[in-house]
Amino acid sequence: DRALTWAQVDDSADRLLTMLLEHGVRPGDRVGWLGSNDPAFLPVVVAARRARAALVGLNWRLAPAELERQAAVVAPAVTIGLESMLSEVELGPVIAVPADGPAPWADRPRGEALEPLPDDPTIMFFTSGSTGEPKAVRISRRSIDLAVSESTAFTFTAGDRILVVPPQFHLAGATWCQYGLLYGVTQYYTADTSPAGLVRALAEP
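Above: the chain sequence. Below: its structure as tokens.
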């Protein structure tokens, strides 16, 4: 239901960067993301990178107590998420993105990106916890850049379109987002992963 051009992503990320700095986010800090697949994720990814912060995908499918326990492990300086999801849990400082209306950082001035380093922590994901409590895994900027720039079975061009189905708290969903950022492809995010919802998403132009 929402669309962003690349220019809008760039502008929105710069304004969110200013808000992140206002919240005290510094290089090496963590910024949480709590939300189903949504275009708002793109400015958050870019802003976190420009702040040299690690974006932490938080699993919105967990029970509130489990989610709060995971957040306590990584101690995000601030958590950004969809308003409806943030209202269910206690995660410390938050920036709530409304379902309708402008982003809460829309009125901020555009910030200036910090000079990145290859070893900057860029993304953090939790393991499945199959042998105990889930553990946070840190991925550096160099690692994620190498992963998405390596040759794959897919050939992307700026005219392509990709449908992002995996959740953004999972490496699969966030990696597709990184492919989109690198190659400039149009990305479609769907939060409805029911069979009918996926058929609708595939059928829409």
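Residues 15 and 203 are 34 Å apart (CA to CA).
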